[in-house]
Amino acid sequence: xILVTGGAGFxxxxxxxxxxxxxxxxxxxxxxxxxxxxLANLKEIEGDDRHRFVRGDIGDSALVERLLARYxxxxxxxxxxxxxxxxxxxxxxxxIQTNVVGTFRxxxxxxxxxxxxxxxxxxxxxxxxxxxxxxxxxxxxxxPPFVESRRYEPNSPxxxxxxxxxxxxxxxxxxxxxxxxxTNCSNNYGPYHFPEKLIxxxxxxxxxxxxxxxYGDGRQVRDWLYVGDHxxxxxxxxxxxxxxxxxxxxxxxxxxxxxxxxxxCALLDExxxxxDGESYRSQITFxxxxxxxxxxxxxxxxxxxxxxxxxxxxxxxxxxxxxxxWYLDHAEWVADxxxxxxxxxxxxxYGQGGV
Length: 355
Fold this sequence. Notes:
alpha/beta; Rossmann fold; 3-stranded mixed beta sheet; 13 helices
């Protein structure tokens, strides 16, 4: 069994689904179910005996210790994080509590648990920290992409909190010998993405006839990674990554935000045209830029390809088409998320908190 934290969120739920489909090994899924955690993401494995869900916080040391003692997972993959830059600007404390304090408490519980293991169980144990390219800061237009040895220069409370958690993971590997791995990924997109992020937000607003907001001049550059490719990469790092190493995971797809929105509009024009015959591009609106907005991120994913043989299977065009089709085919999921109805189901089954 493996333990996946944050396994009801966007990337975490995709990873759980991918893992059960490709590996088949049982998953213990620990998620706090904050606003972005949604059990509807896992509907297709409802009733699957290989999936055990527990509602809880990685910062709840007693709970994590009980789960480790009871289920004795051979690996832990940590997706649990607050992850939205805008939210971190307006309310940074939640990001410190989850991403820094929560990761620290998780590492402490794992350190104690790992010390009780022996033989093959101890040698085979792994902890994988899922992080972001935003810890590296911002790139100039002509700078080479981020490599794993680049200095950390976080520019938002979100990225600073992730940088701090990455440093803690490294320290626990160096100081205590905990068998750790870290991955830093570029912008993910795909199914089950909460509609506060650019791609699902644009799809939802376009179909609703709302303005499509773009920060500043829209020339901010991001490297885009299809979530299914990300899941494959994490599986590969967990399987064969060198202990203590960091692996950058990117899609080799640098696009400006404006290019992304225009590509979405073109796909929607094709797949679900407006009734008035106009292009969705007419809904594009430029809004005031956010504070500390990094100009460019780009990932050099050469190391993971050289060492582990991973390379993304999707181009931006193929991945984006799959994503738009998924959202068009899952209107009920989108409606439940945007209305908040998914929270009612969670409250009914799990109350306000606890396990």
